[in-house]
């Protein structure tokens, strides 16, 4: 209903990635023994999430699909590529 009205619906996998990314930032800071201020965290998060959105959007344009399918397709392609690079292909 919302998409038929032109409302952009962000994929759940994309929205969840924001929290996961910030958790990664915290892990890196703990390992390296330093701390970013809130402005730095927000700046880095914006950079990563903007790039991710553009990657999803490009996938959607090249495969003529909605944002959710584009996000899942991008994710599956990345896992498949990593699997092959590690020599785990069937």
UniProtKB/TrEMBL annotation:
GO terms for cellular component: mitochondrion. Gene3D superfamilies: NAD(P)-binding Rossmann-like Domain. It comes from the Eukaryota. One of its GO terms (molecular function) is glutamate dehydrogenase (NAD+) activity. Keywords: NAD, Oxidoreductase. It holds the Pfam family ELFV_dehydrog. Residues 1-87 form the Glutamate/phenylalanine/leucine/valine/L-tryptophan dehydrogenase C-terminal domain. The keyword Flavoprotein does not apply. The keyword NAD applies. One of its GO terms (biological process) is L-glutamate catabolic process. PANTHER family: GLUTAMATE DEHYDROGENASE, NAD-SPECIFIC GLUTAMATE DEHYDROGENASE. This is Glutamate/phenylalanine/leucine/valine/L-tryptophan dehydrogenase C-terminal domain-containing protein. It comes from Gossypium lobatum.
